[in-house]
Design a protein that fits this description.
This is XRE family transcriptional regulator. InterPro entries: TPR-like_helical_dom_sf (IPR011990). This protein has about 350 residues and is mainly α. The protein has a domain of about 100 residues. About 75% of the residues lie in helices and about 0% in strands. The chain contains 19 helices and no strands.
């Protein structure tokens, strides 16, 4: 680290301030440019206007399915810069394959829009994510499983857009539409989708301050999670008992109960299922945990879990606005770990 960076870290200011620059923090310009490229891809309407922008072979349905799986895997490993580069081509391929093989290409088209929406929410662009998730819901219409899968991202987008009340209503409708008549006879796929949608509804009502309903919905999801078990990833939900315990942390943070959130967090990460969750899921949870520790007046542990998040999935801290925001907040605390202050200074936040 340079002398200027060390001075900036001690003063808890951006190095650019010492140099008199009006520079954007590291990674911000790249994120903005990446989101814009995806927005352009979503706005192309190549098939409808019969004007493909690039002459490239139309992928067969199985080839497209492999491409979708590759992009989802990259997302779940929190390789967001790579996913940003892959998504425009994926969207074009999915639209072309679906146009030629409507039935066979439908699932992959929905999945392409789902992963796009998830990425855009991560990158702090719910307006662009709305366009992707709307396409997913339209493509899924008529298939209850695909609608439920797309509704998972719809819940994320609605909550990120500040529409918690609408999110609750829509998530509950989608959850009970996919719910099996008798839970004991439900398939892991159905239970994973239904439970994930109930969790989305719970997080929405928690944001509205309704603690009783939030607990009831998470408890209902927990009953389903027991029947699914940990270590599965039906419809890219990661749903299982551990994921539900992590949802209790997120709900407690939304409700402003930091000490309860910390208690749930410290219990959840001791479960075997914790290490089976995707890197993206674990690191995103640690950002929630950092917020809980900070609000519980424990900046040392807040810094510790942020550094762990950076180790598991650096992009959650370095490219995700929510991660950068909590990093800056913790780094300003006088008790923040020196390593965290250096990381904040390097990224130009704080």
């Amino acid at each position: 680290m340079s002398t200027l960076q060390e001075i900036a870290a001690v003063l808890r200011i951006d190095t650019a301030v010492l140099l008199g620059w009006e520079a954007q923090p590291a990674g911000v310009a790249e994120r903005v440019e990446g989101v814009e490229r995806i927005r352009v891809a979503l706005s192309a309407y190549e098939i409808a206007l019969e004007r493909p922008a690039v002459r490239r072979p139309v992928l067969p349905a199985d080839g497209l399915a492999r491409e979708v799986a590759h992009v989802w895997t990259a997302f779940q490993h929190a390789r967001y810069a790579q996913v940003v580069d892959l998504v425009p081509g994926l969207l074009a391929d999915a639209q072309r394959t679906h146009a030629r093989e409507t039935g066979a290409g439908r699932v992959s088209l929905v999945e392409a829009y789902r992963v796009t929406a998830s990425l855009l929410v991560k990158l702090g662009s719910p307006d662009a994510a709305w366009l992707a998730v709307d396409r997913a819901m339209l493509a899924a219409t008529g298939d209850r499983v695909l609608v439920a899968a797309a509704a998972v991202q719809l819940g994320q987008v609605l909550r990120a857009s500040g529409r918690a009340r609408v999110a609750k209503s829509v998530m509950l409708a989608a959850a009970y539409r996919i719910a099996p008549p008798v839970i004991e006879f439900g398939t892991p796929s159905e239970l994973s989708l239904c439970g994930t949608l109930l969790v989305q509804a719970a997080l929405a009502v928690a944001r509205e301050g309704d603690d009783r309903t939030a607990v009831e919905l998470i408890d209902e999801a927990a009953d389903m999670a027991v029947r699914v078990g940990d270590g599965h990833d039906h419809h890219r939900t990661g749903f299982g008992p551990t994921a539900v315990e992590l949802a209790r942390v997120a709900a407690a943070v939304e409700l402003g109960d930091a000490r309860e959130a910390v208690a749930w967090h410290e219990k959840a990460i001791t479960r075997d299922g914790w290490r089976w969750l995707p890197a993206e899921h674990r690191a995103a949870h640690l950002i929630d945990a950092a917020r809980a520790y900070l609000h519980a007046d424990d900046p040392i542990n807040a810094g510790r879990v942020l550094l762990e998040a950076d180790r598991i999935a650096p992009a959650e801290i370095r490219h995700r606005p929510a991660g950068r925001d909590i990093l800056a907040e913790v780094a300003r605390d006088p008790a923040a770990p020196a390593t965290l202050i250096h990381l904040a200074a390097t990224l130009g936040v704080g």
